[in-house]
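Session log. Operator J.P. requested a structure for one protein chain; no other inputs attached. Running the standard single-chain path with token output.
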Amino acid sequence: QVQLVESGGGLVQAGGSLRLSCAASGSIFSINGMGWYRQAPGKQRELVAVITSGGNTNYSDSVKGRFTISRDNAKNTVYLQMNSLKPEDTAVYYCNVDIVFRRADYYSSLGYWGQGTQVTVSS
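Structure written below.
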């Protein structure tokens, strides 16, 4: 069993900052990639940022230079620091984590989604 718990969303004025967290717990051997996605009303879910197990990062053009993704492997947690927030950043933010499980004689991996956290940026 694996559980992802997100926190840190809320209401902020344009230009403000928020920090999202997503902590994974359960029978985890290791974690591969971790990422953040968002979905605004009436729109498809889109990639915001991803980070590999080695710490390499990638961002969507819309958040590059404003958002920073990071991870704490000891805590199985991924963070998203969001600065200079804009009204168009308003969305439900979801974390996605690729978890590796150790079986009797092999390893397997499976992706999990967090429950989502609302971020609202007022103008």
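Operator note: The chain has a mean pLDDT of 96.
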